[in-house]
Amino acid sequence: MAHLDSALPMAYAALRSFLGCAVPGLLLIFNSTVITAPYGIQDLTSAATGQRLWEARALHATKIYDEAAARYAEASAGGGGLYDAVAGHVAALLDGGHYDRAEAALTAGCGTDVQQYPAPLARLSGRLLCRRGDAAAALDVFRSILRAVPDDAATFAGMALALLGMGSATRSQLYVRRAKVGTVSDPGALVFLGEAFMELGEWQTATDCFHQRVAQTPEDVYSRAQAARCLMRRGLTAEAESILGDILALFPREAPVVNAVRSVEEEFDHTFGFPHALTDAVDVRPEDLSVDFGTLSMDLDVPPHVADLLPEGPAGSRGCWGLRRIPISRLYAAILAADDSSVQMAPLTATPHYRLLVGDGEAAYLEYAATTAPQKSGEEWVRDYRALEASFEYLKRPNHAGEYITVIEGSNSEREAVYRILDGLHRAVLLQVRGVTSVLCAVMQSAYDPARTLRSFVREFRDDFLEWYQPLEFGTDADTIVHSRTFPDFLSMLDTDPSRGRAKWAHVIRDTIPDVRGKVVYDVGCNAGLFTMELARLGASKVVGIDRNEHIVQPTNVHLPKQNVVNQAQFVRRAFELADGRDYDNVEFMAEDIATYRFDKIEADVVCAFCVFYHLGEARYLEVLQQLSAAGVSHVVLQASHDHPPPLGDVSSLANARALLERAGFEIERVAAPEGFGSPIIVGRQ
Asked: Are 495 and 325 in contact (CB under 8 A)?
């Protein structure tokens, strides 16, 4: 243990050098834990090595896996093969889906005999095998670790993962219960344990693991970020925000750390109020005000207190005829005049609300409050409004009906369209003071007009997306065609060209796929979600569409626009709901990178992949089909393509799809290859 004692001063000096100061209480943490830890921060041999390791953890938390792996590799070289750096290097490659590189890194660091690996790296070897679908071999690795280190909690968690991969959920739960956290002191084991519990969905236990890891290794940005992710999963947003704030306070103005915090928040569609020490002001960007169609509410019944304000009297059910982005300069407020109590229409800049926020109107605002709601004191009004102002980050993203600004359309003396605010005046003024130029509003009418609502919705939001791969229409009106700007030539494909859209569905897909009534169906590579919705219309009990977001690039087509395809599909789902007059609660869309997605974990009866899997390359194509077979999927529907030149054309061919299905254990049930049609359908059955 002498080398640990000698390493302590250097480790603390290294940490201090890249923090820029001594952090209170940190030395006590080192003195109380480092001597018992078999590897970790005590192995640092230089400030440069420490900086690389710290940056690697921050990049790992941000999910920039390639850069994280490079930093870990540099730290490993600089520190003579640090266990922490080697383990981090392998973990980053694993999380990035680079399984061959992860295996090579393990072999380079420890040789080929897993039996001789230190336990932390042996666990990673088992995790690699789990990711590759070889759960039985992973189980053997974890058992060998237990022979050397009995009652090892992290290894029990690994065994639970392996058993789950083998389909033995009951035995898996037995090992989950044995994987207790409290007494684990090995920092690397805690990280593995936390990650394993995350994969198992045991979010509270995973949180405990990462908290304990941070107590031992405070500079571990990755573990802090993972703890925040777990808390978000549990709905403990305030606690997660506290952790994110701690990260920023401990490492102010460090770009990798800022990105790590943003990564957690973007993952959970939640925006954190960054302290002004980090940014001089909160920027309002167009993407901050974008609509998340996955959480958008289409249940726009008029609230009673709003209905009473409508000129026609109380409105019926679903009185809103559309969601619109309205220039904030067109919004007007109904304000009581001080002299005769008459109602006057005023632009937002003339309201007591606006004057209060810009600093010269507290008296007018108090007078307004006393007239409007005398049951609440003026001081309470001011206090509550100031609290709203402080929570501006929360106000930027209106995702459900309670956060829309509700308006009714009218005109001014110049007969220009203006909108009287019925509900949400405080919110509108707050947004205007911050420089927002347009806001999302629910425009109300006393009677619900389904056709008008659909036209308004499609016209308002279709241009949010850079590309429409599928021709898509909800009627003959041009306002209900969503691709007319990006692909005008798609107009000719609506009913006649079987290469795209509903014509393709009717020409070859609908009558070839197996009966999906009452079945769970996955639509992999769903794009805009047209076929996903058609599958739901056929009576599937549940349909899950999977595709990319703006952060995932398709290797065989790097020129595709970087857009959130899943959000586009959510928009299409909402349009279908308006068009069909029903909710599609049985349709779900997920943003996943199918190049690394674990298809052996899904629970589905039918999996459809229309012109998708061959883009992953031959090896991954076969691996996915094998995973689907292992998952017990009864039918796989593939669409091949004869339209690609070699070498992609060789992988995308119908003959190759047939061969790979058979190699994966599927029998060929049906093939639809109309003469002259370049994208035939093949159905495999287990």
From this structure: no
